[in-house]
Design brief:
Number of helices: 21
Number of strands: 13
Strand order of the largest sheet: 3-2-1-4-5-6
Largest sheet: 6 strands, parallel
Distance between the termini: 41 Å
Mean pLDDT: 92
Low-confidence stretches: none
Oligomer: single chain
Structural class: alpha/beta
Strand content: 5-15%
Shape: globular
Helix content: 40-55%
Amino acid sequence: MRLTILGGGGFRVPLVYHALLGDRGSGRITNVVLYDTDTSRLSAITAVLRQQAADAVDAPVVTATTDLDEALRGADFVFSAIRVGGLAGRTVDERVALDLGVLGQETVGAGGIAYGLRTLPVAVQVAQRIAAVAPEAWVINFTNPAGMVTEAMIPYLGDRVIGICDSPSGLGRRAALALGVDPATAFYDYAGLNHLGWLRGLRSGGVDRLPELLESTDALASFEEGRLFGVEWLRSLGSIPNEYLHYYYFARETLAAVQAVPQTRGAFLLEQQSAFYAKTGQQPEQALELWQQTRAERESTYMVESRAVADAGERDERDMAAGGYEQVALSLMRAIAHNERASLILNVRNRGVLHQLDDDAVIEIPCTVDANGAVPRTVSQLTDHQAGLVCSVKAVERATIEAAATGSRSTALRAFAWHPLVDSVTVAHRLLDTYATELSGLGQFRH
């Protein structure tokens, strides 16, 4: 089988390839095509993959191209992880918002809207080319904002495009281990939007074990989300939020923490990865070692400001050990390719599962996956609090999709003004104008 990776020069591509090297089953991926518009990044990542495969038996063959149609022809699966505007765009997303006194995280709040406005036109073009060149391919979307981008691609690809994220599965795994439950046997009653969901139940042996977890101070303090949100707040909620909800529940404190550091997350990654790609170009024989060193630093500093606000300490090695989106992607591909039923938390159309949203709204929810694709499973309904936040952010997502498609300034303004983390229409005006000016050379920012 052939896998095409869009954004093939991206820093995290070796994680996907490593997962493929570990897949020794029949009918596995045998050819990987890397597509990117940046030849230097393609060369660097190709060197890393070549060294990863050095001691592997029958490793997937890797080729690279800057021609999109060439990359897509014959693909069985397409993994989309593009970043329009690169990390330079992300630094603008973050800095403009912070300068105006609101959070500007990559996918949350004003920064996520700006990212969406320049990414969605490209994602739609990609979807159109896939539909024309590889209509039988299954598309796994990791391009952020993942839920929003997946929803924008569905009109062209239907249910053959599925969005993934590693946050929900990581949360479920950590919660299960805190209870002494095998994560592979548990069912996670999880629902919401991408980067905006809650674990409301954890069933094992026919029993919901989440109340037991919420009662145990020691168990809650043993994993990332327990330390991030605090025992008292989790008990008040009666659920465990996705880590990204820290930006909503502790918005003021997180904003102050981010403003106090010398550089934003995007600026840190831009500096770090620029150094990696430059060094790899000079020392290609050290590509894998350089990548491993850079990745370790990247992972240890993830969401560092939020952890500082919560006094959560450094990330636990156990919280990073099980693999992330690459394992979700591999499990999804195997389930479809081999008709092996799997239960995964994915971004798919609602289809009536959550009553507050229409059938076509893309939500993040447990799904049963087989050769026919992903079908959402029945979960408990959202509480009033959860539904209010989800519906509010879904309205923002849809306004962003419409603004990116039409170029309507008024629609883009609504997207910024409606977001719960933007507290003023005046600020929304300023955000829109400043982003449009500063991002004009970094992608198709439309307004």
